[in-house]
Amino acid sequence: MNNWSDTVAKLHRPLDKALFRALSLVLAFYHLAMVMWDSKAYSESIGGFNPVIAPLMIWSLCASMVFGIGFKPKHWIWQVVFSPYFSLIILLYLTFVRLAG
């Protein structure tokens, strides 16, 4: 099991930089603020909260916060669940849709 944890940690090492952590936190706080400020307008701007977008957004917000504050899960399963690769892609997509629309 430890070998898997080390392998996943090595995969995450390229993003383990202050710039990516800050980007992750800024994107998460931005989308969280938009949901809290005017969730109806935010929902309309990203195409609505549907059964795919809503859970992905909630998960990516949580994963971005975990990554952004610097918490590093020890077990490989949690490293994959809170992977910055997936969460940053989702939040960047939502940011692009929100600002382009």
UniProtKB/TrEMBL annotation:
InterPro entries listed in its UniProt record: Cyd_oper_YbgE (IPR011846)
Keywords: Membrane, Transmembrane, Transmembrane helix
Record carries keyword Nucleus: no
Spans through the membrane: 18-37, 49-70, 76-96
Transmembrane helix found in the keyword field: yes
Name of the protein: Cyd operon protein YbgE
Organism field: Vibrio eleionomae
Gene: ybgE
